[in-house]
Amino acid sequence: MSGISSDVIRGYNDTMILYLLLDRPSYGYEISKMIRSLSGEKYVIKETTLYSAFTRMEKNGFIMSFSQLAENGKRRTYYRITESGRRYYRDKCEEWLLTQEVISKFISPKGQRSLTERDVTGSS
Amino acid sequence: MSGISSDVIRGYNDTMILYLLLDRPSYGYEISKMIRSLSGEKYVIKETTLYSAFTRMEKNGFIMSFSQLAENGKRRTYYRITESGRRYYRDKCEEWLLTQEVISKFISPKGQRSLTERDVTGSS
DNA sequence: CTATCGTACTATGTCTGTCGTAGTATAAAA
DNA sequence: TTTTATACTACGACAGACATAGTACGATAG
Predict the structure, then answer these.
(1) What would the pLDDT profile of A18-43 be if each residue is shown by its tens digit?
(2) Is the CB of A14 under 7 A from strand D?
(3) Is A5–B25 a contact, with Cβ atoms under 8 angstroms apart?
(4) CATH topology for A6-105?
């Protein structure tokens, strides 16, 4: 299998989306493409996850939507990050650094610590 | 509010617990203390989270429980990691490395990318 | 002309891990 | 005797991710 489980990513989808909005507004389809490519094809956000994140974040005041005609004449919903959204993003970045630090203490590269055979069995 | 949100840690509580069981069996209270101290007091697992993790992981075959009398004469439920649990732990470690790699692409240290002054704030 | 594909969404309900709240029980300490 | 630390269990709420399904429209292929 391999890949990133949804439990891990949970709570960081918002952060990823906001990151992509820092420079300029964007819309669903484009953002999903950007996440895919920026992650090196390692993570693909689900459509429902993406759009529900938009809804949630707009409700929370982190982004604002506006409708605009695309080159092809189709109407799209764009999202722009707000000041509050930038603050939230910054906080999440800090939280991420902390999280990394903490979780890393519980990770051992080979998945093992000093382990002698007899530890595996025996109680009585 | 700083600290680690539960959404972030979600899915890594199990990993932390398993890490602490790699060497020897342990029990709830001790594990919670170890998580607290190993994380440098930065993360404190909730009791309910911990015990429900035990239940879930035993059901999944990652750990096995056994009851034993403690020094003080009280009966405790200890947990021992299984082979399957070790494998799961190793997988989670790999997943973690991948996750770190991916999420880090969406994190900018100051929470900002090319950004002109006026966007930031002014308290002046 | 029709079918399919890519784009751009919305709706609805399920699942699962975390957490709030609360309660039980015992030994040691105050 | 009351409090504190230890060592749990039960129950329900919550929220984010996801599965599934459907709508709509333009471009492209056959």
Answers:
(1) 999 999 999 999 999 999 999 999 99
(2) yes
(3) no
(4) Arc Repressor Mutant, subunit A (1.10.10)
